[in-house]
Amino acid sequence: MKNLLQNPVYNALLTGDRHFNVGSDKVKYFNEEVSPFVGFDENNVNGFAELHAALPVGRRILYATTDTITPPKGWQVQHEIKGLQFVYERGNDIEEDFRNVIPLNETHIDQMISLTAVTKPGPFGKEQLILDITMEFLRMKSW
Q1: Among the listed residues 113, 102, 112, the one whose alpha carbon sits nearest the alpha carbon of residue 137
Q2: pTM of the entire structure?
Q3: Segments making up each domain of the chain, as ranges
C-alpha cells in the first residue's frame, strides 16, 4: 500500500477532503479562502504547468513534499518551510474517556484561532475552520 503521507495534500484532496477540491482530476487545490495548499500526483511531470494554467494570476500556493525540488520555470520559492509529520502507529490502544467530547461548531472558531496562535499549525483561515467543524471534536475545557 502506498503511504498517503508521502503526498499528503494530493491524497487528502483525492480522498477525505475531495469535496474541498476546486482543481481538476490532475491538479488539486483548495479555495484560496480555505488553504494555500495544492497537490498533484508525484508522477505528473506537468503538474506545475497545469497548476499555472488553472490558478488565478497572483495566487500564492504551498506545495508539500518530502523531497527538495528545483522551482519549475516560471515559479519561484519565496519560503521553504521544513516540517515534521507525526504518525501514531501503535494501533487502537488509546484508553481515554470521551464522554465529555462535544462536536465543534461556529461558536468555537475564536478558541480554535487562539489555539492555532499557540501551536502554529496550518496555514489556514477561518473558512478552513468552518469547513472542518463537522470533522473535529473539542474537550470541554479552555486552553
Answers
A1: 102
A2: 0.64
A3: 4-63, 88-143
